[in-house]
Backbone:
């Protein structure tokens, strides 16, 4: 079985039962001869800005009509369409394991010839390349926006009490002790929703584990038991500084509590700011990078590609698709998305960033960032639930052992592909 066929099988297996999103038209041309470019993206929360962009593009372009779809369950719908060979021209997806599947299943077009790539920060292009199971020649996505995860904090509260931003793990723990001694809750977690457990996990792991640890494990060069022990132990250490019964409260509860001043900090990403400000529009929020180690030089921003645009291999009019990408990458259009979603730009230009990421600007401008560890995890592993179990049962050894066992179980086909690649290329 070829590598393409092997990964296609993986892709199909991941789909499950889903409704089919039909194509936007029975042909690739409108009645008046315009080329139709269909874009399907996975960010329904950004539907307003995408509707705005669609309308503006169609009002200013004579030969191409842009049709943007914003379904609620886009990834499942896309996978279903791919198995039926019903391909949109452009897809808007995250930089995670699904992108890896699509690249290795030969679904995406190599867009190395797209001139707009020259304007994208190399760190984000590198992040995408790092997601590939085995090295693949070419470039298959245009990073558009990213998000940043670390620690949000109440700026007014910090200024009132004279608290300093920590740059090392020991300084963070000392700060938590100081905040707690003043009768204030350092963190609100909201770990009832399992995915929220990933936010501090990822932010710690970028400092404490190698960025390519998942690849190392696939190569048989490392184990998660060794690589993740310190991250797991520090996750448990943070628990003492959060709300009583953090597993009884979810994401919405945590956002509301932080917005109402019930904690000084919140271990979450910049993506939570709009939710928080719905509760308290006037809240003065800033952020800082999670200091996972005691060497401040090791601090790195946890940032990954939140949205990228990929052209499918079956796109019939690549020039028209590139015209759409050019439009989306125009400065004002990127800025409109940033303003709407509180995002971080992947394009290497000066943009107005939300004040809530002031504490991360240095890392963003310098490209000092590392991808989210969970972008490499297969969904079947349910790592978020495993981390929640770790936090409840507080058994580090059991957690790590299960992580290693499950990794082999759910990545067996990928590991075989890696081994085959090594054997063929002598690496």
Residues:
């Amino acid at each position: 079985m070829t590598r393409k066929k092997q990964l296609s099988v993986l892709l199909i297996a991941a789909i499950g039962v889903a409704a089919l999103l039909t194509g936007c038209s029975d042909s690739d041309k409108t009645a008046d001869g315009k080329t139709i470019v269909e874009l399907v993206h996975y960010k329904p929360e950004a539907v307003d800005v995408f509707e705005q962009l669609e309308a503006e593009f169609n009002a200013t372009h004579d030969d191409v009509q842009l049709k943007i779809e914003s379904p609620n369950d886009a990834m499942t719908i896309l996978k279903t369409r791919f198995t039926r060979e019903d391909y949109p021209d452009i897809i808007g997806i995250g930089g995670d394991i699904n992108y890896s599947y699509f690249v290795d299943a030969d679904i995406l077009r190599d867009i190395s010839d797209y001139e707009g790539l020259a304007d994208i920060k190399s760190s984000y292009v590198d992040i995408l390349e790092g997601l590939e199971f085995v090295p693949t020649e070419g470039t298959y996505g245009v990073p558009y926006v990213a998000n940043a995860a670390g620690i949000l904090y109440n700026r007014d509260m910090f200024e009132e009490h004279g608290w300093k931003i920590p740059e090392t793990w020991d300084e963070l723990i000392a700060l938590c002790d100081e905040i707690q001694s003043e009768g204030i809750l350092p963190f609100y977690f909201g770990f009832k929703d399992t995915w929220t457990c990933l936010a501090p996990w990822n932010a710690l792991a970028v400092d404490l584990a190698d960025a390519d640890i998942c690849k190392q494990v696939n190569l048989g060069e490392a184990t998660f038991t060794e690589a993740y022990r310190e991250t797991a132990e520090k996750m448990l250490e943070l628990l003492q500084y959060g709300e009583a019964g953090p597993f009884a409260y979810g994401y919405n509860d945590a956002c509301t509590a932080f917005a109402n001043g019930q904690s000084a900090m919140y271990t979450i990403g910049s993506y939570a700011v709009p939710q928080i400000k719905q509760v308290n529009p006037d809240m003065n929020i800033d952020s800082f990078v999670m200091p996972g180690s005691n060497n401040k030089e090791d601090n790195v921003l946890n940032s990954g590609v939140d949205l990228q645009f990929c052209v499918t291999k079956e796109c019939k009019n690549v020039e028209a698709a590139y015209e759409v990408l050019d439009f989306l990458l125009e400065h004002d259009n990127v800025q409109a998305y940033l303003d709407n979603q509180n995002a971080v730009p992947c394009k290497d230009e000066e943009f107005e960033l939300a004040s809530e990421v002031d504490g991360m600007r240095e890392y963003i401008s310098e490209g000092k960032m590392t991808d989210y560890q969970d972008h490499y995890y297969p969904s079947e592993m349910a790592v978020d639930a495993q981390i929640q179990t770790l936090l409840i049962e507080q058994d580090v050894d059991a957690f790590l052992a299960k992580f290693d066992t499950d990794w082999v179980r759910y990545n067996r086909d990928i590991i075989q592909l890696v081994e085959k690649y090594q054997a063929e290329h002598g690496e």
The domain at 3-147+304-361 is CATH 3.40.190.10 (D-Maltodextrin-Binding Protein; domain 2). Residues 328 and 334 are 7 Å apart (CA to CA).
